[in-house]
Design goal:
138 residues
Amino acid sequence: INTVLFLPLTNAFVAILYYNSAFPFNSGFECFKGIHLMHFGFAIIASVFLLAFTIVFNFLYIDNNPISEAAFASPLNKLSLLKLGIKVFFIVYVFVDLQNPLGKQFSTVMAVVYLAMLYYRFQNCPCYNPSVRYVVYF
């Protein structure tokens, strides 16, 4: 869920939640009537479950035992939640900004955010095992 399924499922749910008649897949639907209302309700429920399960799996995926035998055991950090938030923001931005007048500014802001995440990653201990920590840095 965290790697492959999150982006297409979120994209599908946002496409249903953000109704715009300019989208080609909204051509046969009336807003909040009939089948669109059913899809809208399903999209809300499914997106809440998807986000909840993704956050839970995100925290359960990390082995945070300091004396673990696993090579990449690491402490919990908020970086994975930040990356999840960026994914959701990017999908919502693509649907809201159809004409893309702020494409260069958005790309610049995203580059700065990813550089800040990279700096944070190098400043904090990514792994408990010192030999793995040395390999990750270099």
